[in-house]
Amino acid sequence: MGICWSRYKVDSQFHTGEDSRYVSRDAHDNSNTDSKGSSTSVSATRSEGEILQSSKIKSFAFSELKNSTRNFRPDSVLGEGGFGSVFKGWIDEQSLAASKPGTGIVIAVKRLNKEGLQGHKEWLAEINYLGQLSHPNLVKLLGYCLEDDHRLLVYEFMPKGSMENHLFRRGSSFQPLSWSVRMKVALGAARGLAFLHGVANQIIYRDFKTSNILLDSNFNAKLSDFGLARDGPTGDKSHVSTRVMGTYGYAAPEYLSSGHLTTKSDVYSFGVVFLEILSGKKAIDKNRPKGEHNLVDWAKPYLNNKRKVFRVFDPRLEGQHSPKRALQAAEIALQCLSMDPKLRPNMDEVVTALEQLQSRKDKAKNDQIDVQSNRQGYSNGEPKSRGSTEPEAARVNAYPRPSASPLYS
Ligand SMILES: Nc1ncnc2c1ncn2[C@@H]1O[C@H](COP(=O)(O)OP(=O)(O)OP(=O)(O)O)[C@@H](O)[C@H]1O
Ligand SMILES: [Mg+2]
């Protein structure tokens, strides 16, 4: 969640290999000076007490979370990131007290790794942002725990895990995501970013990548991890100056070179993620042939070449998209990846373009699935079972789980 540790990131479902996090060593985080006199910066202007008091989420006792995750049992681990491990747990829907596994609602409990040095700031940023924001494309933060040196965050459980797992996990039991599901996820994630950029004190997410896009049982995308999020520039300022932090392969070139952060930095990261979604290839992969390690560098020359653009697309899509849609999608990626931030569209424009990209059939199908899931409601954090009269919903839900682990069942 936006922290740089020189350690390997291990995920119980997917090994990403080398830790791709970075933080600049020479630049200074100018957050304090930039936000002087305004109520824009998370850390500079609101004290921990103010943030915790004003958040409307529950403060959990450590013992409650210990009980709900069966003492943080290793077989409850959903995944692991820079912040620490994420555990599956159970709480009572009404009282939010720990409940017996299998009863109440399912939660995901993220526990800060105590060896981490920068975790507290990110933990607080998550509460500051997610504790106040609410949007269908942002993951719900249900509560937190601050007790002695324990720092935990409690989220709604996302049954299909992260988009990273769905895109890059290989195995005979894993079907590739269909074109319509990929477009649905891209649109949902774009809406999440557009929402952040559109709020009164605009928010720059700064850590947009496929592992931070979580998926509900209907492939609705929800952004998680606001540890690196920053308030956007205020007044006549064009950018926020920060220490460069994020994940290799996703950060905008001007942000990397100058530390100048704008909403257009997120748009660039969206372009990288969209390219990953279209190609099924990771942003950085040293196992690819020489000259192809960096996805953007490799793909860019093809994106505006009508005859060669198809080389970029994931062969596992097997032509589910029309050539026209493929070209439109390539054009969106290319614009988001413009070197000059001024030439990039804003996220509202990206949302509009992605909406147009969805075929009418797909849109109707996705809307139908959403309506059905709303009607059915959830019990125990899982969708209720579907009858045979709902073929579309059943088909999408028949997609492979992100992990062979029963935790994602
Ligand atoms: N709310 C959730 N519901 C279900 N699974 C989750 C949830 N939050 C996280 N996970 C799982 O835990 C994994 C680790 O999440 P985490 O956000 O800590 O790290 P990450 O995003 O993979 O990496 P990074 O630290 O670089 O952001 C995710 O990839 C996902 O599989
Ligand atoms: Mg994450």
From TrEMBL:
Q: What is its EC number?
A: 2.7.11.1
Q: Give the record's GO biological process terms.
A: defense response
Biased amino acid composition, Polar residues? 32-47, 369-379
**Positions contributing to ATP binding:** K110
Enumerate the spans annotated as Protein kinase domain: 72-357
Arranged from A to Z, the UniProt key words for this protein are: ATP-binding, Cell membrane, Kinase, Membrane, Nucleotide-binding, Plant defense, Serine/threonine-protein kinase, Transferase
Q: Name one Pfam family in it.
A: PK_Tyr_Ser-Thr
GO cellular component terms given for this protein: plasma membrane
Q: Where in the cell is it found?
A: Cell membrane
Where are the stretches annotated Disordered? 21-47, 358-409
Tell me a Gene Ontology molecular-function term this record carries: protein serine/threonine kinase activity
Q: Which SUPFAM superfamilies match?
A: Protein kinase-like (PK-like)
- Regions of biased composition (Basic and acidic residues) lie at 21-31, 358-368, 383-393
Q: What class of enzyme is it?
A: transferase
TM annotation in the entry: none
Alphabetical list of InterPro entries matching this protein? Kinase-like_dom_sf, Plant_Ser_Thr_Prot_Kinase, Prot_kinase_dom, Protein_kinase_ATP_BS, Ser-Thr/Tyr_kinase_cat_dom, Ser/Thr_kinase_AS
Instruction: State the similarity comment.
Output: Belongs to the protein kinase superfamily.
Q: Which PANTHER family match?
A: OS01G0588500 PROTEIN-RELATED
Name of this protein: non-specific serine/threonine protein kinase
- Give the originating organism: Heracleum sosnowskyi
